[in-house]
What does this fold into?
Amino acid sequence: MWGLQRETSSMYKRTSSRDYSPMLDVEDSSGVLENEVNSELETTNPSWKCSLPHVLVATISSFLFGYHLGVVNEPLESISSDLGFSGDTLAEGLVVSVCLGGAFIGSLFSGGVADGLGRRRAFQLCALPMIFGAFVSGVSNSLAVMLLGRFLVGTGMGLGPPVAALYVTEVSPAFVRGTYGSFIQIATCLGLMAALFIGIPVHNIPGWWRVCFWLSMIPAAVLALGMFLCAESPQWLFKQGKIAEAEAEFERLLGGSHVKTAMSELHKLDLDRTDEPDVVSISELLYGRHSRAIWYKCCFLFLFYRFQKCRSTIGSGQHLCWGFKPLGIRNRNGVDG
It folds into this structure.
């Protein structure tokens, strides 16, 4: 009987060794292979194509900023003539610069709106005054209405670009974040160029300056509607406690294989910020422990900016003198160049 038990036991052992060990080896090897594939996917860079459409829609706000800065440069003479303030340099200056006053007001609320309502809602809010203000400027028949429209546009100009810089940083993969960040400046320059090109027919077509304002309503509407299709900032969703939604947005922006890594980075940053205050008062910036460094940097940047302006002014004057030399025009001291 003991021999029978030993024989049965040995048969069971041989059977388990022969039948089950290959299955266990296959499962172990497949698990190791899966872990290697996942680790390889996590170490590779995510596709830049997923986040590019979201970045391009966000940079429309910077395009509109540049457009409205330059939209009145070419048609200003026609505007002043049609609205009855031709030759009034103060009124012309107000038409050009009042939008910057509105931009200052809008920029004061950009951070609070972006943190309170989200990045997408902030973009849509900046598009609304740009649409309404451009329409008012286009239909204006007096200086006061024109200034009102320009001021409304300015509030959107101040609200949008700061949110664009924040949004592009938060939705871009790390390896193309600098490249995508440069799109904001490129969009601003393209907006200035577009305003100049669109204003070319203003001297040949009566009332064309109204069309210049109305055309800006198209990209503003694209911005407002496009944000319905764009991803919300995962960082903002994480800060609001919406973890599942943040993971879903990371999957849209980076791909499913990079969600775990992105979320772990957010958790790490959140732990690092536990000892730091979320809100810094203005008095802390002006009189706190880092105030001296801030003042030094501000003074340096101001002096550097003024130095660059002086260089450009002197250089422009020299080039003008050299350009007028063939015409026999001399400078104040009677010396060429």
